[in-house]
């Protein structure tokens, strides 16, 4: 996961789609599901949030943002902020992900 983050940190939506083909959306769905299933354990939350942020913050990647929101990703991230067992670094990564969603425009903020 860390290697994925390093390799894709500054890619745009089209670059991610070209790199992973139709598998980019599937990868985002798997990462989102993995986060939902494991965030209460507190293991790897920061890495998962960082990987998801790559998709959500990608320039011209509104499809990824829409998919993340439609699968309940924002609700999961808000739940992460309320969990006491998670570190401050995990919560900062959650706030950063919410920041990326908010930066996408009013439509996504609501």
From TrEMBL:
Pfam families cross-referenced by the UniProt entry: DUF5578
Keywords: Membrane, Transmembrane, Transmembrane helix
Highest taxon, organism lineage: Eukaryota
Transmembrane segments: 37-58
Protein's name according to its UniProt entry: Uncharacterized protein
Species of provenance: Prasinoderma singulare
């Amino acid at each position: 996961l860390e290697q994925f983050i390093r390799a894709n940190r500054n890619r745009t939506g089209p670059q991610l789609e070209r790199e992973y083909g139709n598998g980019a959306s599937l990868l985002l769905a798997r990462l989102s599901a993995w986060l939902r299933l494991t965030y209460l354990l507190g293991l790897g939350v920061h890495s998962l949030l960082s990987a998801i942020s790559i998709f959500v913050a990608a320039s011209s990647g509104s499809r990824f943002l829409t998919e993340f929101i439609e699968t309940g990703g924002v609700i999961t991230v808000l739940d992460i902020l309320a969990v006491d067992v998670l570190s401050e670094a995990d919560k900062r990564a959650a706030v950063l992900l919410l920041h990326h969603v908010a930066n996408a425009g009013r439509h996504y903020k609501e």
